[in-house]
Amino acid sequence: MHAIRIALLSLFLASSPGHANPWSEVPGPSEGMPRSIGETSAGCIDGAAALPTEGRGYVVMHLERRRNYGHPSLVHAVRELGEKAAQGIGLLHVGDLGLARGGPMPFGHRSHQSGLDVDVWFDLNPGLHARADRMRSNIPAPSLLNSAARGLDYELWSDRHIRVLQAAAHLPGVDRIFVNAYIKRELCRTVAGDRDWLRKIRPWYHHDDHFHMRLACPPDSPACVRQEPIPLGEGCDSSLDWWLHQHPALPSKPSEPKPALPSACRTVLADP
Ligand SMILES: [Zn+2]
Fold first, then answer.
1. Cα–chain center distance at 223
2. What is the CA(236)–ligand 1 centre distance, in A?
3. pLDDT tens digits for range 233-264
4. How far apart are CA 223 and CA 202, in angstroms?
5. How far is ligand 1, taken at its centre, from the CA of residue 212, in Å?
């Protein structure tokens, strides 16, 4: 269970907005060559790129958070996924990437620190596109779970969700994608033909209203710390049953101290 615990911390969602920290107050990306530094839950990014707040097939939500930054390969991956979405899947509502120099956020995530993580809503309907920026801050992402939270809401779940996850899993550089266990189970039950990509779809806490896409360490980032590789196989086995039947509870607070940032992140933060 220890591995689960460690992994849990890296995705832990803090409950309420906290105070600003130095990472949330930087004027913009640092000027170095792009490189991800450290771990997704204890790291930063030099030379981050900004994802334009809208583009073909996508809009960025919660603009006021200014979390639309990441490694250029992440920005590229989101734009690619938008292109795919525009071909009959729908409109992507892109949640947080990371802060302009990565690093810990005052609220919302433990990971998303090294420019390799992005959240994408499961709401693929284009209705929000015309709304004002202000509205993009105030609307919640709808969940795909049924009212008992013990399965999917089949009024909402659709083939488009399978297609967007499949497209995301096939993007170059994508290492893993976190979804709710009931979503993983649905894919295990229904996907026909090519199923290799199911391996990258990992069950996780929450993630019933968005999926979380994580890139592997890019080749230009020697100081990026690789995550433990995902297990072989589709993951439609007893490991999934554990999520479905144990209903592991998410602790209300991280019980371990935050890991220290690599010292290279101090330089990234200090860049004028
Ligand atoms: Zn996330």
1. 21
2. 22
3. 999 999 999 998 886 666 666 566 677 899 99
4. 25
5. 5
Residue 160 Cα to ligand 1 midpoint, Å, equals 21
> Please, what is the average pLDDT of the chain?
88
Q: Which two tokens stand for residue 55?
A: 């583009």
Total count of domains within the chain? 1
Is 8 among the domain residues? no
**Does 24 reside within a domain?**
no
Q: Which domain holds residue 67?
A: 33-265
Question: Of 98-102, 184-188, 244-248, which gets the smallest average pLDDT?
Answer: 244-248
